[in-house]
Amino acid sequence: MALRLKKIFLLSKKELKESFKSKEVIWVITILPLTFAIIMPLTIPLLEMITTEESMNTEDFDNFPPLVPYWDELNDKNKFLVFYTMIFFETFLLLPMILPLVIAADSIAGERERKTIESLIASPLSIWEILAGKLTTTMIPSIIITYVSGCIFMIISDLALYSNLNRLLFPNTMASILLFVFSPFLSLITTQSMIIVSTKASGMREAQQLGSLIIIPLYSFIIGETALFILVNPWWTIVGAAVLLICAFILLLINLRIFDREYMIATTRG
């Protein structure tokens, strides 16, 4: 059955309005990006003040793979600051996983609590269209917030580091791949997983608790991919993104299989 894009757009628009009425959703999509994008990079000047050449072990970075093209030109203190900042940027990728967790939980489990999902399930929309609407409802704000926050993080970090490095750290290949390639796939997988969890969960709180377990293996995958990136070649990260895409497709098939209209209506009435 062909997807009716206009119907999907209208459903997403309606869902977004409902989600943004939730104080919990507003709290998370406001405070969390501010923490990752502004507060984290603002710790760099503090670290720069308390770190001295004398406190560095000159052998710490002797055999360390270069994180930037000018790595060998940096002293040990600046190498540490670059390393610290890039680790923070990797931690930043929790954002495209946490945002969908909250929004997607509200989109389905929250609707069940508000007793509004019955009318949606009983509508003439196909399962494909409902799922597409749920995906876009969660993915659009998550990706936009992640991209904007990532750019703010890079700008603040560059301002904080420029006096030491005398050049820009961002954008670089590693950060660009992680932000613009990895983060949408992470958001997509988290969203798909949360739809599965929310379909069976009794409420929004339960869906969020179960969905939080998704973040641990996903973040472990990021760490492994980043290590591979540093030690071998940045383009291996594309292979990692392909793996995530395959996982997202498998999750879509699972969603189509378990998204049952009768079950959803029965549990809502119960």
Provide an overview of this structure.
The chain is mainly α. It has one domain. 77% of the residues lie in helices and 0% in strands. Helix 5 packs antiparallel against helix 9 (204-231). The longest helix is centred in the middle third of the chain and has 39 residues, at 127-165. The mean pLDDT is 78.
Fraction in beta strands: under 5%
Cα Rg = 21 Å
Q: How many E strands?
A: 0
Percent helix among the residues? over 70%
Mean pLDDT, to the nearest integer, reads 78
How far apart the termini lie comes to 31 Å
Overall geometric form? elongated
- How many separate domains make up the residues? 1
Total count of helical runs of at least 4 residues = 11
Instruction: Encode the helix/strand succession as letters.
Output: HHHHHHHHHHH
Q: Which residue ranges are poorly predicted, with pLDDT under 50 across at least 5 consecutive positions?
A: none
Label this structure with key terms.
270 residues, elongated, 0% strand, mainly alpha, single chain
Strand and helix map with partners:
Blueprint: H1 5-19, H2 23-39, H3 43-50, H4 76-92, H5 95-114, H6 117-121, H7 127-165, H8 173-200, H9 204-231, H10 236-258, H11 261-269
Helix pairs in contact: 1-7, 2-5, 2-7, 4-7, 5-7, 5-8, 5-9, 7-8, 8-9, 8-10
Gist?
The protein is mainly alpha-helical. It has eleven helices and no strands.
